[in-house]
């Protein structure tokens, strides 16, 4: 089983899970269908199914186009609001695509119909994968748009945390640096956070994705999985795990990552460029007034 990471839109990811022997592929959240089909064609793959984590347009927008383009394509999801849905799935339901197995994990909170997908291959020693959409991010978690802290606590500490620790985490967005800056604010002495933030910045400089992480790694630096740690409790002023989760998310919602300060020469060039751009925009107005 091979997972192809595809960057789309501003910071989204869509994925192709490929059974290398048969060249059959399963797409996860293919919001840019033409790009997906280009990759499928270029690599000689056969697209047989789509797994949709939730109905938001930046995850499900491509479903209808793909159904129209690929005869017999199955689109799986847990929410009737998902466009192009052909097969509605339920919690713990298992799907099988030749040697690839998928277990559906119902994780309502970000939306009321969120579903994560735990994927593994028969007789394969490679680590399994979980596609978490906007539920679990590297170093963070999704907003509670249609749910509660109680639900997210259950999703992260009971559902996802029950998976094998070596499970690879493939999330829906590249927001790792912001998440880790917040994690450092929560736990300023956490060396794992510092190491991961340095690594993520280097990946960003090279324009490379930070996915996947592993569940074991997330427990080392993701504050939303570290609710019983003293530093996290001190930051929130709470001890009960759900209340810690609630305060963490409220603080994360207000958090703005500190801006990377540009060197003086770059700031001068930027200011000069903005000044010249402003003059260029004004000059036609001046001429019209002459």
Automatic annotation (TrEMBL):
Signal sequence interval, chain numbering: none
InterPro entries named in the record: Clx_II_MBL, HAGH_C, Hydroxyacylglutathione_Hdrlase, Metallo-B-lactamas, RibonucZ/Hydroxyglut_hydro
Biological processes annotated in GO: methylglyoxal catabolic process to D-lactate via S-lactoyl-glutathione
Stretches assigned to the Metallo-beta-lactamase domain: 11-173
SUPFAM superfamilies associated with the record: Metallo-hydrolase/oxidoreductase (SSF56281)
Gene Ontology molecular function, alphabetical: hydroxyacylglutathione hydrolase activity; metal ion binding
Cofactor: Zn(2+)
Short name of any one Pfam family annotated for the protein: HAGH_C
Alphabetized SMART domains for the sequence: Lactamase_B
Keyword terms, alphabetized: Hydrolase, Metal-binding, Zinc
Cited CDD domains: hydroxyacylglutathione_hydrolase_MBL-fold
Family: Belongs to the metallo-beta-lactamase superfamily. Glyoxalase II family.
Entry protein name: Hydroxyacylglutathione hydrolase like
